[in-house]
Amino acid sequence: MGEREELAGDGFAADCRARVAFEVLANRWDSVVVFILGEGGPMRPRDLLDRIGGISPKVLNDALRRLECNGLVERHRYAEAPPRVDYALTEAGEALLVPIRAMGAWAARYADTVLASQDRFGTR
């Protein structure tokens, strides 16, 4: 069965596996964290904060926990003093870079159109 057939008809029913991908991408920060880890490799939380900008330590921690829970990042703890932790993408996280980059390309092309439409809608 091809990709088109898998998504046709009841492809987006409540129990559809494709919804998992949309739920993973729906969080504002999760895709940003995946993208930054994909571009820079394993990183410590402080480095992620510096690279992302505009995200609080708590929100980053929540995103990392969510991504770890979803099997998209792995947490590596090193037995050092002081303890060191870094995060890296799993195979599933690496594979997610393809649709994230595609969404970025879409946004670069259509974000102004969407924002203009939202402005028009808001002024009615």
Strand count, sense and barrel status of the largest sheet are: 2 strands, antiparallel
Fraction in beta strands: 5-15%
What structural class is derived from the secondary structure elements?
mainly alpha
Percent of residues in helices: 55-70%
What's the name of the CATH homologous superfamily? Winged helix-like DNA-binding domain superfamily/Winged helix DNA-binding domain
Number of helices: 6
Mean pLDDT across residues:
88
From the N-terminal CA to the C-terminal CA, the straight-line distance is 46 Å
Give the strand tally.
2
Domain HTH hxlR-type: 16-115
GO molecular function, one term: DNA binding
Organism: Streptomyces telluris
Protein name: Helix-turn-helix transcriptional regulator
Give your account of this protein's structure.
With 124 residues, the chain is mainly alpha-helical. It has a single domain (3-122), classed as Arc Repressor Mutant, subunit A, CATH 1.10.10.10. It is built from 6 helices and 2 strands. The chain has helices at 3-7, 18-26, 30-40, 45-52, 57-69, 91-122, and strands at residues 73-78, 84-89. It has a two-stranded antiparallel sheet with strand order 1-2. A hairpin with a 5-residue loop joins strand 1 (73-78) and strand 2 (84-89). Helix 3 (30-40) crosses helix 6. The model has no long low-confidence stretch (mean pLDDT 88). This is Helix-turn-helix transcriptional regulator. One of its GO terms (molecular function) is DNA binding.
